[in-house]
Structure formats: structure tokens, C-alpha cells
Amino acid sequence: xxxxxxxxxxxxxTALMLGxxxxxxGDSSEKLDKVLAAQDDETKARYTWRHPKETLxxxxxxxxxxxxxxxxxxxWYSKILVDYIxxxxxxxxxxxxxxxxxxxxxxxxxxxxxxxTWDTDxxxxxxxxxxxxxxxxxxxSFGTMPESLNGTVDVVLMIRALHNLNRFESxxxxxxxxxxxxxxxxxxxxxxxxxxxxxxxxxxxxWADGSAGYLKKAYLIERLEQAGFEFVAESxxxxxxxxxxxxxxxxxRLPPTLATSRENEELRAEMEAIGESNRMTLKFRKP
Length: 287
What we know:
Blueprint: H1 5-37, H2 41-44, H3 47-50, H4 52-58, E1 66-70, H5 78-85, E2 90-95, H6 101-104, H7 109-115, H8 118-126, E3 137-141, E4 153-159, H9 163-167, H10 169-172, H11 174-185, E5 186-197, H12 217-226, E6 230-235, H13 265-274, E7 279-285
Parallel strand pairs: 1-2, 1-4, 2-3, 4-5
Antiparallel strand pairs: 5-7, 6-7
């Protein structure tokens, strides 16, 4: 069998591209390993439950990307992302809209006032988390996303961040508005990565509205598809079959919060034996 020179050149070019892609993937994986190994012991202690390497690779996060992290809080994932994404990328924190916080009923007036400046305070603190080649950091609150972000983001991560948006949806369209911001921010083909406490399908829908921390998988997929996202794939990375909540349970009964067992050593040991929550890991794409 004979091949033309042009066909041979095409085959070689394809092989070279595949080889280059594999090399890039290998370099990314190696970099992520180094970043994870450099985290403090408290962060590493949760790798067993949070699986950051597998989770970030499943969502396709790579160095040089622009990434939004929803509800980054104290920065557990942010401290990994700033060094992994690197100076050629960007990390953008996205907080809940300020008006959602009074609805929780437990924030002090002082805490609520401080939350008003989160968009500038959080980046200032996060800028100290990375090394000299860390990603630049900025922030916004859902509902007030700057138009300059439209169509610029590669990946949005909503890790355990959707239940309260759904819980208070009827109070101010918080889930709807946040998903609209996410959709607008993503480039065509961009990825929305979701990790969320998963409610058993047989539990009451009213219980699984997010107020106990859990959402049902079928409901969440349908809700995000209604918001314009395509469901791509799911992974069992963050599943924990030992977590089988009843309609009397809340997710915060489990580690690390242990909200219901602080004064009960026997119950605390029972919750610690279950481990952290059962979590669905879902990948969506903006068409």
C-alpha cells in the first residue's frame, strides 16, 4: 500500500499534535501534584473527601485559564487554584448577592456591614495566598457581575455553593440570577463544574430544597438545563455511600462542622464514621 507525501505529512502532523496534547496534559497534572503537595496539613487532611486533583481534572481546569470560583469563602480551593492556574490565568471569586445574607438569620449587623465590601476585601486577602507566579485575583457578587466578564471565562466552579441559592430562590431569584451571570461569563464551550451535597431521590422534595444542604440530582440537572447549559457528564469522584440522610437530617451534622454533636461524644463518633457528605459531581457546558 502506497501513501502520498501529503498524506504522510498529515499523519505525522496529527501524531505530533496528539503527542503535544499528551505532553501538555502531563505537565498540567504534574504541576497540580506539586501545588497540592505544597498545601498545609489542614488542607491535605481533607483530600480524602474533596479529591481536588480528580475534581479539577474532571472539570478540565488547566494552567492559564480564567476561572470563577463561586462562594470561595476562606479559600480552601482558591489557595490551590491561584498557583495552579498561574500568572497567565485569572481567578475570580463570586459571592452571593449581599441581600441574601440577612435571610440566614444568624449574621450579626457587624458581619452584614463587613460583607458589603467583600468584593474588594476578598481579593486583597487572596492576593497573599499564592507564590510569585500566582494568578491575579478579583471578585464580584452575583447579580452585579461586570459586563466586561461576559464571554471571557473558561470554567466556573460551584462547589457546594448552590443549595442556598436554591433555598432562597423565592425570596429574590438568587439561583436564577446567579446562573444567568455564570452563563454570560462563560465563553462558548466553557464549563460549569458543580459539586453538591446530593439528596436521596426518595426523600421529600420540600426537604431537598437546599435548606438542609442537599439538592436532588435530577432536579439540579433539569434546573441548569433550563438556564441554558448542556449536561455533559457526571463522576463518582466525591460520592460517599455512607451518607444516607433522612428528612430529619441536615448536612452540617457531618464533618467538618459536626453541628449536632459538639456536646455528644458518642454521636460525634457516629458522624465522623460516616465522613463528609455524599456529593454529586456534574459537568455542564455553555453551547
